[in-house]
Design brief:
Layout: H1 3-21, E1 27-37, H2 41-50, E2 53-60, E3 63-70, E4 74-81, E5 86-93, E6 97-104, H3 109-113, E7 115-126, E8 129-140, E9 143-152, H4 160-164, E10 172-182, E11 185-197, E12 215-216
């Protein structure tokens, strides 16, 4: 095959990949990589033991289920239903055992006053999706969380972050950098989508029935 034909085939492949990547997805599976670090040596050593983690999110319409598993944190599942504004968190933790939290996702007016969202003015391309950048600052219980998010409107999947921001941020976050400092210990978390599959998901993935053996997480436990 001569050089010009190779270039033509390469361009066709690149265009096809770009078209597929920009296709709007309303149902499927999203894989995301999570890495955590800190300027504090002690904190960083503890985070290094966790290593890079990953999540798998199943989404369909106004519902999503995110699963994460690691030796130190155990198995964690977060189910979101934007229609009923409910969120269920299931934790099978090596130290705490099997616990659950079930709440509504309503954001109070007081909480909204402590959420500031502004555009960064730049963009980032992740898996072929051109994402718009946002700076997000959330203040709660004397703790300030700073986030940089790059979102796309091509993915229709509810997330815990978008829900707790009270509609101030639109789109699915393909890349996030979260900075938080508590008790003088800074910590940075970077989350990036690594794969998106456009495929059907069973409704059973979004069942909010509390599994047998789980007890409610309270302030005392």
């Amino acid at each position: 095959m001569n050089f010009s034909k190779k270039i033509t085939l390469f361009l066709l492949l690149a265009i096809n990949l770009s078209i597929f990547a920009q296709k709007e997805v309303k149902e499927g599976i999203i894989s995301m990589k999570i890495s955590m670090s800190s300027d504090n040596e002690q904190v960083n050593a503890s985070l290094a033991m966790l290593g890079d983690m990953s999540t798998t999110t199943y989404f369909k319409g106004q519902k999503s289920t995110t699963e994460m598993s690691s030796p130190m944190t155990g198995d964690n599942t977060t189910i979101i239903d934007n229609d009923t504004k409910e969120i269920l968190v299931l934790m099978d933790n090596p130290m705490l055992g099997k616990k659950y939290l079930k709440n509504t996702m309503e954001v109070s007016d007081d909480d909204l006053k402590n959420i500031v969202v502004s555009e960064t003015g730049d963009s980032k391309t992740v898996l072929g999706y051109k994402c718009k950048g946002y700076n997000v600052i959330v203040k709660k219980d004397d703790v300030e969380t700073k986030m940089i998010m790059y979102t796309t409107d091509k993915i229709s999947a509810p997330t815990q972050n978008s829900s707790t921001l009270g509609g101030k941020l639109n789109g699915y976050p393909m890349y996030m950098e979260i900075n938080i400092s508590q008790s003088g210990m800074p910590m940075k978390t970077i989350m990036e989508v690594t794969e998106i599959k456009n495929e059907s998901v069973a409704n059973s993935k979004f069942d909010m029935t509390i599994p047998e053996g789980y007890t409610e997480m309270t302030d005392n436990k």
